[in-house]
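Structural prep section.
Before we set up the soaks we want a predicted structure of the protein with flavin-adenine dinucleotide in place, mainly to decide which crystallisation condition to try first. Input record follows.
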Amino acid sequence: MTTVWVLGNQLTRTAGPLTDDPDRVLLIEAAALARRRRYHPQKLCMVFAAMRHFRDELRDDGVDVVYERAETFGAGLDAYFDAHPGDDLVVQRPANHGTADRLRELVAARGGSLRVVANAQFRCSPAQFDDWMGTEPPFKHRPFYRHMRRETGYLMRDDDTPEGGDWSYDDQNQETPPAEYDSPSVGGFEYDEHVPAVRDWVATEFDTWGDPDGFDWPVTREQATRALESFVADRLAGFGPYEDAVLADDWHLEHSLLSAAVNIGLLHPEEVADAALDAYRSRDDIPLNSIEGFVRQLIGWREFMRHVYRHQMPGLATANQLGADRDLPPLYWTPTATDMACLGSAAGRVYDRGYAHHIERLMVLSNFALTYGARPQALTEWFHGGFVDAYDWVVTPNVVGMGSFGTDAFTSKPYASSANYIDKMTDHCSDCAFDPDSTVGERACPFNSLYWDFLATHEDTLRSNHRMGLVYSHLDSKRDAGKLAAIRERAQRVREGVAAGRL
Ligand SMILES: Cc1cc2nc3c(=O)[nH]c(=O)nc-3n(C[C@H](O)[C@H](O)[C@H](O)COP(=O)(O)OP(=O)(O)OC[C@H]3O[C@@H](n4cnc5c(N)ncnc54)[C@H](O)[C@@H]3O)c2cc1C
Ligand code: SF4
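Run finished without errors. Recording the tokens verbatim:
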């Protein structure tokens, strides 16, 4: 007798233990998990509604499903073992650090046993990654990505060289959409009783942050598959050129919007990559920079982050090599209260639907927190609560490593920039109350003084970094010209204003 315990982010029948026709399936809807922080109501709605749909689909196919609604996993297991004493459970290894051990203890305390099997929701297994890495971190994405390309055969020629001759077309992922640009429409899912019921329950039961209305995320395998098909049909071709662009009146551009569905198991990363590659092969409108860019994100960065997290936890969660000690400023929770157009827009998008794309996450939301000096853990907490696709294994390395430079274990330099980058990649600056070309003065863009002040503050740590040589020569020029003191004074005023919710 095998009972598979399916966690809320393991809703897959195409990989893992449910492919083996289990005798019984257990799902526990534990409310306490949703009380751990102020989550986005759309994230809670997505997960709980997807679990209920998953239960119904299994039952429709004749599977014996026990669905416990309880305050905690412990209470859910109490109810389960009262009915099925001494049962043996099987679970896929959760990607989050420490969870497997905690689940095992909970089950053992109730007289059962829990067998933890490999997590089949990724393309690269721990053994494969560790084999590739050998005994010598540091972790480097570029060689890992090449390894994955070879391993999967994705975009490889017969002679073991990459299609097109280059491994990455990152330099062709930074175009600005033309003025008449209009991205294809997205979403439009229709929901039966589960989404409305869960939305009402979430609204009355939990303390959340974010807009519960406008929910438009896939909650079934069928909807997720349609979301994948629509991305491949309508947006994959334009994914590459505009991947790094940010537009004030377009929240999704040509991004796939699939992370949340992949992260809870509704889609497998391999099938997503295969669908994109099939389209690339069978159509002639998908450029190499689009398909390569997409494969790099999904099979490169996503898998890399999972394994870096696996290796670096638990230290990664508290890493703070720059000693940043400020709280996150209030504008992250009240995006309408800031005059900074780019930041207000990005944080507002998170509030509206629990989503912002990767450049908004990295170069706007994280960049500001980094140069402002917010604790990586404060930023992680905000990302964790705000995004529909946030799970510890993916939030923590992205925010602590990439976004905050809390560790240099897998990022070689901080992703800090002045308004220059934002002005180039977005159309926000022309409608902003601040001037992207000024560094001092009341209307000077806050990103500018914070950026130079950040470089000056962390000079001892960062100047020797060979990738920072050029920016430090610019800092030297400002210092030599006697401008640095005024810039740092402006940064101080910006910090005070931002902390007080005035900017
Ligand atoms: C500070 C920061 C925080 C982030 N937090 C999360 C998070 O909580 N959850 C999450 O899934 N992704 C996170 N990411 C990665 C990335 O921004 C999102 O996966 C992506 O924006 C999701 O939107 P999409 O599905 O439209 O992605 P697309 O732009 O269409 O990219 C395709 C897919 O690639 C994968 N991907 C791309 N980059 C990464 C990455 N760095 N790490 C993991 N997967 C990646 C995702 O599965 C995504 O669906 C974060 C990135 C940064 C810089
Ligand atoms: S001027 Fe500064 S704050 Fe305003 S949109 Fe540009 S980068 Fe953002």
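Observations: The first strand starts at residue 3 and ends at 5.
Flagged for discussion at group meeting.
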